[in-house]
Amino acid sequence: MPPLPWAPDFDHHPVAHTITSAEIVAGHVQLGWSDGRSSSHHALLLRENSPDKATVHPLSREMLISPLDLPADLRAESVLVDGDGALAVTWSHGGHISRYHPGWLRTHAWFDDAAPAGSTRVLWNAASQAEPPSFDGPQVLADPTLLLQWLEALRDFGVARLRGLQSRDGLLEQVVTRIGSVRESNFGRMYTLEIKDDPDSNAYTAGALLQHMDLPTRESPHGLQFLLCRENTTTGGEGVYVDALRIAEDLRREEPGMFDTLCSVVWEFNNRSKTSSFRACGTIFEVDATGQVGGVRFTAWLRIRTLKRQLRKQERAGAEPGH
């Protein structure tokens, strides 16, 4: 038997569960899994991602065909699980046979039991038993296992601290690029937070900043921000962390009307300086298809106006606008 086919992407798809059965049901490919779950796979979606050299380039892993190249009446004629555990599909046109990696199929499955993926998200506040953890910075950078633990904590809590890092140039970028690329902002690729004689941001003054998120004036502001404290020769300046997702869920439970308002009313945010003006629009809370809050866009001093038509529509519907 040939080895398992490569996946039509560059992701890693471990085979934690094997395919135990395969059949065609109402035009979909129906799979049974070793953990007892059942999944459906759309035939056209499978055919578009067939990991053969005529469909997906073996090096770039990008599609080589157009959806228009596929017949409108294309269907899977037969399916089987081969000796390597891969799914083999024979298509109705040209006798084309595709083999699919079981790990990739599991990743992209539509599960019939509709069981949501288990969330590792931890919602916290000052009274929580669980709080954002701290890690030994030098050990995290030296040990891949600890690095993974730190990243998982960052994913789950939204905040994860590294302590004991050296105060040297280039260290912050070394940490960040272990995770991904750096997105440059109007403050630069990296910047020093210090008091300036002629500030163009409240962050460059001696005043305290209200709780906020940075860059709500960008089309896609949500991501990770890293702060490295190299020296503090003054008193005060403590950082106060807030779990915005906990606030959102508290509002959903205690003030559902207010929560709905913050999910529907679009605000314009503007960051103005002497040399630039960045503007973007969005709701305070962004909710995904499952109803989970996936993003928060809020900085009080950069929020300048709502889109009036949305507020008027809400008022006509008898709802009280949030404020």
Helix and strand arrangement:
Blueprint: E1 19-25, E2 28-33, E3 38-42, H1 43-48, E4 76-81, E5 87-91, E6 97-100, H2 102-107, E7 110-111, E8 134-136, H3 137-142, H4 144-157, E9 161-163, H5 171-176, H6 244-254, H7 256-264, E10 267-272, E11 277-282, E12 285-287, E13 293-296, E14 303-306, H8 308-316
Parallel strand pairs: 8-9
Antiparallel strand pairs: 1-2, 2-3, 3-7, 4-5, 5-6, 10-11, 10-14, 12-13
Helix content: 10-25%
Poorly predicted regions: none
* Main pleated sheet: 4 strands, antiparallel
Q: Strand sequence of the main sheet, in spatial order? A: 1-2-3-7
**How many individual helices?**
8
Instruction: Tell how many strands the DSSP assignment holds.
Output: 14
Structural class: alpha+beta
Question: What is the assembly state of the chains in this entry?
Answer: single chain
What would your notes on this structure say?
The structure is a single chain. The protein is an alpha+beta fold and 323 residues long. The protein is 21% helix and 20% strand. It has helices at residues 43-48, 102-107, 137-142, 144-157, 171-176, 244-254, 256-264, 308-316; strands spanning 19-25, 28-33, 38-42, 76-81, 87-91, 97-100, 110-111, 134-136, 161-163, 267-272, 277-282, 285-287, 293-296, 303-306. A four-stranded antiparallel β-sheet has the order 1-2-3-7. It has a three-stranded antiparallel β-sheet with strand order 4-5-6. Strands 11-10-14 form a three-stranded antiparallel β-sheet. A hairpin with a 5-residue loop joins strand 12 (285-287) and strand 13. Helix 6 (244-254) packs across helix 7. The longest helix has 14 residues, at 144-157. The termini are far apart. The model has no long low-confidence stretch (mean pLDDT 87).
